[in-house]
What does this fold into?
Amino acid sequence: MGTLDEALEEVRELYLDHAVGYHHPRYLAHLNCPITIPAVAAEALATSINTAVETWDQGTSACLIEQKLVDWVTDLIGFGVTPRHSRVTSSSGPAAPRPDGVFTTGGTASNLQGLFTAREDRLARPAPGRRVAGRDTDRGARLSRMRIVTGEHAHLSVIKAARLLGLAPDAVITLPGDGDRMDPATLDRTLSALADAGDEVAAVVAVAGTTDHGAIDPLREVGGICRRHDVWLHVDAAYGGGLLVSPTRRDLLDGIELADSVTVDFHKTFFLPVAASALLLRDGSGFRHSTVSANYLNPADGEDHAVDKSLQTTRRFDALKLWMTLRVMGADGIGRLLDGAIDVAARIGRTIDADPELELVRRPDLSTVLFRPRPAVTAPDRPVTDDEADALVRPVRDALFAEGRSLVASTVVDGRPSLKLTVLDPNLEDDDVDAVLADVRDAASYLAEGMRQATTAGVLT
Ligand SMILES: *Cc1c(COP(=O)(O)O)cnc(C)c1O
It folds into this structure.
């Protein structure tokens, strides 16, 4: 036992001194953003009051604020703007689907619930096996032949979701891409072949901003193909979701409204603290698959309870930080931050392109910059080979991490190692960028020199 001061002092040593600051101008590694001040205020409030967005008698006004934001996001997507409490009922046919959504802990959770909803939606429809003689159509048999179709660069959470949803180990079909993007013709052919084989497709997962390259699948074409094949489209916009409020680049998400479900991560390109994400459904009635009623909590009495839509029960009031940020900065204000980050990434791409000791691997679409070191020092008499450049990538990243001055990430592009910058700081100065690139160049030529000496020594002995 001790005082709060003592605990703080200890935590400084144990945690703060070693924590990586995502707001730091030389942190350019992963998809972590600098955060807005109003959101920090909101976090302090929501945590202090300790609201659980769960049932009406626990969450009251917090439930309404979250719902208002969910309606706002479904509107931005283009799902339609029917207000929640005015369900359209008409005697002349079924009511139009009412979009809805729920906040979650992150893109992983949103993708899981989106794919779960898609799976249940598929199972609620007749099995294709009825058309294929002799096929068993019970639930287990259908699950064992159910597929999820994605592009090459889908997030790992899609595979995790498939495992949790009881699908077969080979259930996720990864289509070879057209560069970094899903190829619509390949998707079309694959869906036809699966239908011919009597396989069911729970969902096609398109990505609006791949985690690794920031590439956006051709959403409108993919959406059209999914409609034609009557297949659920889940758009994972965990990274690219911020484009929904971009004053200049909203068109990059053209066609997202064709999705049946969408994942948006507010703790990435909406510049909010961890954690804040949402799953949005074109037809909010899909949340019935997530509903279990209990007399003590959420009796089926016609009352709307937030818990009816969530895989969680006790749930943080993460919506408040989005609310407060919007009230202070406005949607355009958030969008301009992302636009700024994309501009910075483009500038870095040009700088790298012009640098003889660096090689640009991909021109950035969003805010991801992929590049390789090409030090001249390896051998003055011959240029560095591809293999040598490849061998430098991971050690350069490790050296920077060990040094602690600049932080970049590493990945693999087209089978070859690559360094990666994920830029989410719109205010990044050229000096900071130059310093990070100088650290990369220095580490690369130092390591290359070591490699050359090792090679020479090997030749001599
Ligand atoms: C980050 C990311 C995820 C996972 O989101 P978390 O919030 O980390 O759980 C899913 N999909 C894509 C495309 C992402 O970039």
Remarks:
- The chain has two domains: 37-85+96-328, 355-460.
- Residues 82-90 have pLDDT under 50 and may be disordered.
- The longest strand covers residues 200-207.
